[in-house]
Specification:
heterodimer, A: about 120 residues, 7-stranded mixed β-sheet, B: about 110 residues, mainly beta, about 0% helix, globular
C-alpha cells in the first residue's frame, strides 16, 4: 500500500514569490495535516483539512493557506515568501475523525528554500 | 498552552547500552502521547502511542514507553540499542477534543556507535 506522497521534493523560491506544495494521502484516509519543520523551531502544526474543509489551524499568518480536493489530496500555498519560511514541510494523513487510536502517517516532506 | 519538552538534544551511546529518552508535557486534561522516529533519509514514522489503559506501552523494534501521569512524563526506553537505532526521536502529545493537532518536542538525536 502506498504511503503519503508529497511533491516536489525540493523547491527553491525567492522572497515575495508564492510556493505551492502538494500532498496525496494514504488511500482511505480523508484527513490531511500540514506541519512545518524549521531549523531550531521543531515540528509545528500548520493546518488540518478533512472533506474539503479547514478543521483547524496553527499559529501561522494568513499567507499560509491550503485546500483539499474531492480526491482528498491537498495543496499548501505560501504567499509572499519570507526567508524564515525556509523549512521542511511535512504532510500527514489519517482516518476521520482522528480518534486517539488513529495514527497520523507522515510523508517524506518538501524542502522549501527561500533565497 | 500545551507544550512538550525533551530533555536530551543529542545522545551518544555504544551498541548494547540501555537507552532512556526523557519527555515531559504540559497539559491539564486527558492526553494522547506518541513517540515518532526519523531514521536518516527516511520519513517520520510511529514508534508507539498511548491513549488509555496500561501505562507501559510497547512499540516496534523493542522500544517501550511508560506514561506517568503524576510526573507528566512519557519516557522512551530500550534495554539494548543497536547501530540501526541511530535516528532522531520525537515525543508528541495530542490533547482531548477533536483538534487533529500533534504538538511535538524539539527532538533528540541518538547516535549509536558500533
Amino acid at each position: 500500500e502506498a504511503g503519503v506522497t508529497q511533491s516536489p521534493t525540493h523547491l527553491i523560491k525567492t522572497r515575495g514569490q508564492q510556493a505551492t506544495l502538494r500532498c496525496s494521502p494514504i488511500s482511505g484516509h480523508t484527513s490531511v495535516y500540514w506541519y512545518q519543520q524549521a531549523l531550531g523551531l521543531g515540528l509545528q502544526f500548520l493546518l488540518w483539512y478533512d472533506e474539503g474543509e479547514e478543521r483547524n489551524r496553527g499559529n501561522f499568518p494568513p499567507r499560509f493557506s491550503g485546500r483539499q480536493f474531492p480526491n482528498y489530496s491537498s495543496e499548501l500555498n505560501v504567499n509572499a515568501l519570507e526567508l524564515e519560511d525556509s523549512a521542511l514541510y511535512l504532510c500527514a494523513s489519517s482516518f476521520y475523525p482522528p480518534t486517539p487510536a488513529d495514527t497520523q502517517y507522515f510523508g517524506p516532506g518538501t524542502r522549501l528554500t527561500v533565497l | 498552552a500545551q507544550s512538550v519538552s525533551q530533555h536530551n538534544h543529542h545522545v551518544i551511546l555504544s551498541e548494547a547500552a540501555s537507552l532512556e529518552l526523557g519527555c515531559n508535557y504540559s497539559y491539564g486534561g486527558t492526553v494522547n502521547l506518541f513517540w515518532y522516529v526519523q531514521y536518516p533519509g527516511q520519513h517520520l514514522q510511529l514508534l508507539l502511542k498511548y491513549f488509555s489503559g496500561d501505562p507501559l506501552v510497547k512499540g516496534i523494534k523493542g522500544f517501550e514507553a511508560e506514561f506517568i501521569k503524576s510526573k507528566f512524563s512519557f519516557n522512551l526506553r530500550k534495554p539494548s540499542v543497536q547501530w540501526s537505532d541511530t535516528a532522531e526521536y520525537f515525543c508528541a502529545v495530542m490533547g482531548s477534543g477533536n483538534t487533529g493537532k500533534l504538538i511535538f518536542g524539539q527532538g533528540t538525536t541518538l547516535q549509536v556507535k558500533p
